[in-house]
Amino acid sequence: MNTSISLLRRIKDATVDPTFKIADVLRLCKILADRLNHQAFKEWVDKEANGYESEDELPDYRILTNLGCRGDFFGGFGSGVKNAPIPLANIPEDFRKAASLRNILMSASALENNVNQANQNNTSIMKLIWPADLVVCLNYIVYENMSCGQAWTDISTSAFVAILDTIKNRILDFVLAIEAEALELGEVNIGKQPLSTRVVNYIFNQCILHENNQTANSGSIIQNHNQEVNMSETNPIKIQAGRDVSSNVISSEVSGVVAGGDISGSVSNTISQLRTADTQEASELADKLVQLQAVIENESSLSIEDKKDALIQVQALAEAGQNPQEGKMQQVAKGAIRMLKGLSTELPTATAIFHEINHLLPEISHLFGL
To answer: Where do the coiled-coil regions begin and end (predicted)?
Structure first.
């Protein structure tokens, strides 16, 4: 074996090394796609690197649903309320889905830049401002005798992080599967195809598209899915999300996402659902859970498993917060808080997560009346 680092090893290292930019990971994948001579993988890499041209092309992990909405409302004699939640039921039905759903079309590197800028500004929520013609539809129907001055949709930066993690995870799964079939693929000469197209098609479907309806037997890695992927090799790749999305009347710059199956995306979704509750306590709890989620995801001293366990507790708190007075939900909240406190005792006291957990948990307990 050549003593130089293989292409596959370089890609694997890049997906797990936080110092690598997502653009660098995708460029390495473009080289791999060329060596594999696999058009569908190349097109997927190009779309992630350059952005998607239309919503019809989006994979499911780039669709963000159940987002929370807020606005500033003004009444007579100087009365008003700012940063107030907007229940989805109060939004005109024609615009309801568009208000709470976003399709993320931008490139992966643009997503990464947005996350980095938000971290530099010490913010965890991004606002997507609604156009004026939709804002006027909220006058006097959300809050009695109040007109809407401005409205927006909240997107947590953790949702963008979840998309980036999903891209990296699918690349890593793809590379590991390719490596299992051809261990020295990274050392081969360009133009030499070490794996059959049928094998690469199967791996692409399973690891990148996450299609699970292919059949296989012990003698061959694939049997009956070749026709579907071959079509994608001759036509532009269309990764359908299986949805009926209303026209996006709110934003042309950002259109939104949830990483399917990813714990971070699931937590973000649950927190967004919590925001739809029309109470100040729910709003405050959601804000604190977003902070807690961000510090857990960004803490380098936590293992992947510890992060997953901690995020599960954050999600439990978000679910319990939707019915905080229910006895069963209070027990769930107590258990989650106890688990997070236990986690903090095992951390170095100098870490950011230690201070944040010990700062946020008493406030969260208070919101639950514990």
So the answer is: 101-128
Q: Which two tokens stand for residue 226?
A: 């070749």
Chain segment 307-317, per-residue pLDDT in tens? 887 888 888 88
DSSP string, 225-238: -HHHHHHHHHS---
Q: How many CA atoms lie within 13 A of 246 on its CB side?
A: 14
pLDDT of res. 261: 36
Q: Maximum distance among all alpha carbons in the chain?
A: 80
Query: Exposure string (b/e) for 204-241, b if CB count within 10 Å is 16 or more?
Result: bbbbbbbeeebeeeeeebbeebbeebeebbeeebebeb
Calpha distance 308→15 (Å, rounded): 18
Q: What are phi and psi of 230, to 5 degrees?
A: -60, -35
Whether this model's pTM surpasses 0.85:
no
Do the Cβ atoms of 102 and 128 come closer than 8 Å?
yes
Q: Is 79 left (phi over 0), alpha (psi -120 to 50) or beta?
A: beta
The answer to whether residues 267 and 141 touch, using CB atoms and an 8 Å cutoff, is no
The amino acid sitting at 284 is E
DSSP track, 131-162? PHHHHGGGTTTSSTT-EEEEEEEEEEHHHHHH
Question: Distance (Å, rounded) from C-alpha 188 to C-alpha 30?
Answer: 15
Report yes or no: 321 and 282 within 8 Å, Cβ to Cβ. Answer: yes
Instruction: Look at residue 258 in the predicted model and tell me its pLDDT.
Output: 31
- Looking only at the bridges linking them, the beta strands covering 125-129 and 69-74 are unpaired
Helix 263-275 vs helix 304-320: crossing angle, to nearest 10: 20
pLDDT digits (tens, 9 = 90+) for 82-133: 999 999 888 888 888 888 899 999 999 999 999 999 888 888 888 889 998 8
Burial of 201 (0-12, 13-18, 19+ CB in 10 A): buried
Structure tokens at 170: 């699918």
